[in-house]
Amino acid sequence: MTHQIYEYKDDQNWFIGKWADFNYLTCFGNDTDYEKSQDIFHSLLKRLGVESLQVHIAQLSYDVQLIAFLVDVINQEMKRNLHIKRHQGAVLVTEADQLLAVYLPDGGIAVNYFFGRGMSDFGDKLLIATHNEGKVKEFRKMFASLGIELESLNDYPDLPEVEETGMTFEENARLKAETISKLTGRMVLADDSGLKVDALGGLPGVWSARFSAPEPTDAKNNAKLLHELAMVLEQENRSAQFHSTLVVAAPDKDSLVVAADWPGYIAFELKGEDGFGYDPLFLVGETGRTAAQLSPEEKNAISHRGLAMKKLMEEFPTWQNKH
User: Which residues catalyse the reaction (predicted)?
Assistant: First the structure.
């Protein structure tokens, strides 16, 4: 069986290829040309799901010519409709309405030049449905690795307050995330967290932030909790769990929901200066330290919100890419 031989040749580029049983690339020239051609060849073929192309590069001067050659062979052999577009010095490979690959020149391209707008308008943003800057600070640290910029409700003072009328953490988180997403058209993350104390039948639970209503504060909530547990004298009987349910909502998408618990005990007195809410009273496992005595890094690694975030980070990329 014979295979068609494909060739492209000009004064500065010369490529020869054929369709075979596996991908393979050889290249004459210096190390720079070899590494560059290997990167382009293997990354593009992997992105396009190609496993049967063999190419020999006799001479390489322009990356775009190699990309064009590869695309042309793939179109002919696989009956695809790939196109190459040039944009501000970059090479884009598209098919139908999908952008499949982007190749940048050495040294990259200025964001403002490439997109025609400022960096502040570029990239994915996530609106955190809270005014609590303590929570926002924790989330900002967690999302930094994904390159996602965070905003909070403090950046949207005209948005109405969403009443947390649900009877469960998930119901309240959904109410906040989905309502605000509909109002703004944005991707929104809502967290409904609370403290569940076993001796109090799971209270304060979804009412954790409003435990000392009508005018609740962290100090008043902690004082009331100590009062409610005044007759529970054994530490082992003061077991509790911090709970967190996270919901990410976006227009025209099913919401993403994850949850986690952080077990511990309620201390007999406030300890620690960091954290917020019930942190100064929440003893972490058997450590004897409260959540308010942990550094932000220590807390994020083991807390209810940190554990829920780990689950979220595992599922978020797949969820975000769903249409």
Answer: 192
